[in-house]
Amino acid sequence: MVKVIVADELVKANEETAAGNRRLLEEKGVVMVNLIGGPGAGKTTLLEKTLPLLSDKFCVAVIEGDSYTTCDADRIAKTGVEAVQINTRGACHLDAKMIEEALKQLPLDELDLIIIENVGNLVCPAQFDLGDDYKFVLSSVTEGVDKPAKYPLAFRQAFGVVITKTDLFPYTDFNLGSYIEELFEINNKLKIFPVSSLKDEGTEEWSQLVGRMIWRKRRGLTVM
Amino acid sequence: MVKVIVADELVKANEETAAGNRRLLEEKGVVMVNLIGGPGAGKTTLLEKTLPLLSDKFCVAVIEGDSYTTCDADRIAKTGVEAVQINTRGACHLDAKMIEEALKQLPLDELDLIIIENVGNLVCPAQFDLGDDYKFVLSSVTEGVDKPAKYPLAFRQAFGVVITKTDLFPYTDFNLGSYIEELFEINNKLKIFPVSSLKDEGTEEWSQLVGRMIWRKRRGLTVM
Q1: pLDDT value at A5 more than 50
Q2: Which of A10, A143, A149 is facing B40, going by the closest CB pair?
Q3: A168 touches chain B (CB under 8 A)
Q4: Bridge pairing between strands A160-164 and A134-140
Q5: Which residues of A touch B165 (CB under 8 A)?
Q6: What is the ipTM of this complex?
Q7: In this structure, what are the phi and psi dihedrals at residue A116, rounded to the nearest 5 degrees?
Q8: Beta strands in B15-59 (DSSP E)
Q9: b/e burial code for range B18-31 (CB count within 10 A of at least 16 → b)
């Protein structure tokens, strides 16, 4: 029983902190997006390609979650966008408390958008709300079409799915139609973005969506 | 503090159960292999291609870890090999207790080999010993070369790494030389197996290695 009670307490404490993060960002008019995906799903590469588009129009910062290294934050820094690194020291997800600390390091009065890159893991990050406005799952065409059924929580909570590495379509047995069916089976409200960061396909469309999220928040409209 | 104490207790209890599993399989002369990899790394596909080779010569069973579905166990069943399904109900890894229960369902006196397919996750499964003889990490060429540095625990504990989806080499910027350097930086004893399950390349070599593990155990030799 100990395990269950402690887990419940942890989740409850996390939800309270997440609600606090959400209130703070609501006050400051900042949109926060949470990117979730397995190792190598293409989260950092999507950011490398879309941050230059977004930071042209908006004031953007990134919170980088990683078990040990700073290699992703270093890649983000090269785009000229400010990145706060959170090292979880082996832990498998970010939690709301870590984000609360990271927010203290960011100039919230100036920012329009914060993008969080979660730890590379499709299971645990889905269980911890961070106080974000929108969650996106990133899943590559090489991962196959069965991931929504196998990791339903992440897909159920997501606002959208970015299908990455579409340049590899011709070399895999990935079937986009079947995949979309699998996605809608789990969550029929998902926005779907096929993207090849390598070939700059779909990256502008995704950036435009994120831009619309910012405009909506500025006008005091609720999330989409 | 509660969190830390409970985590330590859980890990200690898991280690005791894992040691029990290991003793039982030692007695029975059964080799147990633990496959760890992120979502879509190609664990099930490797098994689909190698189980027919292995079950030709040895008596083999599979333990399938999955958060919710039975889709992988169904794929294994089609190869004619017995598969025990463990549904973790959202939990992000298998633990030794789950394996202890699964072993009760298997004819250990007849078996030579048990292959465990862990939950698709490169973080948490590395923290829980199952009582296996050999751990393999599966990582696909599309995941990029930075995974050993980012998920060091899994690679440090592994006996070998199966580099999957090598048929996609020509369409990615994956550099095998750099990857092997990254691997050896973390663990210079790793056995490395580049494999394309799709094209049946490297699958026979991996099966032969697993076969040698069985022969060694039959002769009472320690693990390699």
Answers
A1: no
A2: A143
A3: yes
A4: parallel
A5: 142
A6: 0.90
A7: -100, 130
A8: 31-36
A9: bebbbebbeebebb
